[in-house]
Specification:
The protein is an alpha+beta fold and about 550 residues long. The chain contains 15 helices and 27 strands. α1 packs across α4, α8 (about 200-210) packs across α12 (about 280-290) and α10 (about 235-245) runs antiparallel to α11 (about 255-265).
Amino acid sequence: MSPAGCSHVNGYKVDNWKQNLRVIYQCFVWSGTAETRRRKAKSCICHMCGAHLNRLHSCLYCVFFGCFTKKHIHEHAKNKRHNLAIDLLYGGIYCFVCQDYIYDKDMEQIAKEEQRKAWKLQGRAFCVPSENLMQLFRNQIITSVLSHMCTFVSTGIGEKYTTWEPTKRELELLRHNPKRRKITTNCTIGLRGLINLGNTCFMNCIVQALTHTPLLRDFFLSDRHKCEMQSNSCLVCEMSQLFQEFYSGHRSPHIPFRLLHLVWTHARHLAGYEQQDAHEFLIAALDVLHRHCKGDTIRDDNGKKANNPNHCNCIIDQIFTGGLQSDVTCQVCHGVSTTIDPFWDISLDLPGSSTPFWPLSPGGDGSTVNGESHLSGSTTLTDCLRRFTRPEHLGSSAKIKCGGCHSYQESTKQLTMKKLPIVACFHLKRFEHSAKLRRKITTYVSFPLELDMTPFMASSKESRMNGQYQQTVDVLNNDNKYSLFAVVNHQGTLESGHYTSFIRQHKDQWFKCDDAIITKASIKDVLDSEGYLLFYHKQFLEYE
């Protein structure tokens, strides 16, 4: 859609359209009272198949409910030429001509106002009694619950949304009990689902990882971005708004339509409703953010700009950019040519790919390196990093001109980390594309909760001799230690799949983000996952 929005909305804005839209939100979307919830449960069924689920939508022009998944609402729109419908679960407006969820300022204002009204009406449900008070009317609650269960069984599925409402006696006891408390949601602040706008799970999982990047979160929530763009096309401004939405305390899933539109505008290779690669989206998003926020800087406690050897002090480079050192050694005179290139992520080969993998696991005796258990035949993140930083013989077909010999000679090349980023992103190369082969590599790679990058630093290069790994332990050096805070996973095949993510909310609290659905996850769930993108954050930060 164009930035001007949907032109078909004007056909709906006639007569008492605002009042009609408010009634729909009050009765069939937000449902702030018990009565409206009961009415919604009884009346909101598909007029074609009678189902309650399947993304039920309501026509904005007439009284018609239809399934979006089974396209019953689409058939109605085509036959009646009613172009607009509303999602009864999330409140989004869909245009059947544009074939997309749309944004209209007036409609959005009505939706927000009615949602706030519903929250106020529901607010009393968040007050709970203390242990002593619960004991006083426990029997009343049990009786009430049993009564509702019997009602549900006798009257059918239409009553399944009925909620318990306290009686006058119970309300009186609550008011007079000084120990009652209000349930807070501080422990889950920042947790918010994202609506899938049509194969946009690749974007949603990256957004979850970025919004839970601590330093990036602090930057945007402290209003540090100073926009210098004249139009409304700044991706950094949209990310700033996105952070505000995520940490506002709202529980309903967010609809990232503006973010999607801006990504399509600035990274046209990602435009369209086809499934895209989450890693490709991450790099494209970082690139656009980097270009749009070059005027923003990170400063230390004294107000001075933080030093960045990559000559850019924007927030993206300060957090995600590291320095990769490449040493090319002549096999004749042993002269070394060194270059240092910036990187935002590290792509790692996996066993099972057409590229020969170096089996570097230190034995199959159950030993542990970097917190990873090495079982017989298993592959770890450490193995992949050791292969990435091993010396590689370039061969006779790739001779380089040696500055010492002044002639073309065979050489070896070795990559090491000259400077580590604050956030280290590891991309496990699970999608293989070649002239002969297109497939997904499902090899399980174990990864640790805590990672020490010291063995892979350029300063530790001398500790590896002849391609053999020798681990050095320095208990006083914490500069290179990282903690896992986000994991992006891909389920399915190369042609068809789905992205989800795990994010760490607190030290030991993990949640699975599957588009609009967020559920609690265990550490085992995280570490047992396949892993596609791994996000690690430095444990200790220092300003130079």
